[in-house]
What does this fold into?
Amino acid sequence: MTTNTHTLQIEEILELLPHRFPFLLVDRVLDFEEGRFLRAVKNVSVNEPFFQGHFPGKPIFPGVLILEAMAQATGILAFKSVGKLEPGELYYFAGIDEARLQAPGRAWRSNDHGSHFRKTRRGLTRFKGVALVDGKVVCEATMMCARSREA
It folds into this structure.
């Protein structure tokens, strides 16, 4: 495996992830090193559709979407670390442990989230994820993804 540290723009992200609007929660990869870490950003606007109901007059970025953004960053790191998958293969979100939502994510701010590679065992790869808003940790979790053929 080669070590490569750089950024990814939306065009490259769309080549790696199957997610699309409104469920694509990675706008840009700020930095990554294959097999080690990835740091990404989701620019959160008050115009996001979920803010109409979560919560009217007090927009809070839903915790489950913060976790999903972290999982998408994990998927990108897995793709960039392992290389090209066989046709019909994807990385699937396989599990989450020790998830902690520590503060609400607000509208109009960037959700800076990242993933750190932990280990691969029996087809599952473990990552430690963290999300920050304005430099403060809002969520941490250990996540797993599995390389598998499309269902």
Summary: Residues 5-47+56-149 form a domain with the Thiol Ester Dehydrase; Chain A fold (CATH 3.10.129.10). The longest strand covers residues 136-149.
